[in-house]
User: What shape does this take?
Amino acid sequence: MKMRHALLGLLASAAFVPAAVSAQTVMRLAENQPDTNPVTVAMYRFADLVKEYTDGEIEVQVFSGAQLGQEPESIEQTQAGIIDFSRVNSVGLANVSPSMGVFTLPYVFAGWDHKYKVLDGDVGDEVLADLEKVGLKGFAYMDAGARSFYTVEGKTITSIEDLKGMKIRVQPAPISIRMMELLGAVPTPMNYGEVYSALQTGVIDGAENDFVSYHTSAHYEVAPNYVVDAHLSPPALILMNKARFDGLPPEHQDAITKAAVEASMYEREIMREANEKARDTVVEGGATVNEIDNAPFQAAVQPIYEEFPDLLPLLDRIAAAK
Assistant: This one.
């Protein structure tokens, strides 16, 4: 009994002693690409900027190479507050926030200038705001390159007819799956980390991505036939748990927002340069790169726009910005 009273007395006295407050808040950021990818390089820049703009009060730890899971998992974990940030492509994000899907429609952007006129304008802001409905805070858009097809030995694409019956890996998203069906291929959704072995073992005939990812993933080693059709140009972005963001003092909210915007602008620059360099590198490594007339591809996917009626108002505004 005496021991119990002594313990209660100790706890009571401890209640009057202020708890030690950490001088630094540590936050985790999930990134599925390797350290050599421009998006990952930009995430390290983001972490440095956050530390600088908060005078060291917030440290962002970047977990690259899918250490915290592939993009679908990292989106869920960010929503749940298990992790603070994730850098994701808009394709997977459209499964959670449907309006994001408008940027993942095939051939939606006429070119670089049109793309960022839309993303940095009212349409882009509106789509970012929709993320808050699902517990996420989005910042500025980054570039994820233009996605084109690549295939294994013995499976080349010289026209749209060659796609018929090919098993092509796509990101697990309804628009990507439907696009592939309209092109005559067999869409095969799978996580990014499974693609190399699936190409190597013949589970799939091909995949699609930009030159940087084609290079940094080493997919060119097992799928050396790349054909430039640029069917998708979906942006990427940094996400944060909305409740976590709202719980920060205003000066930290401002610092994170500023850091995210600056890192995103930096990423756009280095991604453009990296895609040009990656194209040369994969050719030097044995890949064959061919240009193709994508007009038949564009014609084949026309029905997809009517199949997502909720996106038509946004699509009209994007078209008007050309």
Q: What stands out?
A: The chain has 14 helices and eleven strands. The chain has two domains: 24-144+234-279, 147-233+287-311. The domain at 24-144+234-279 is CATH 3.40.190.170 (D-Maltodextrin-Binding Protein; domain 2).
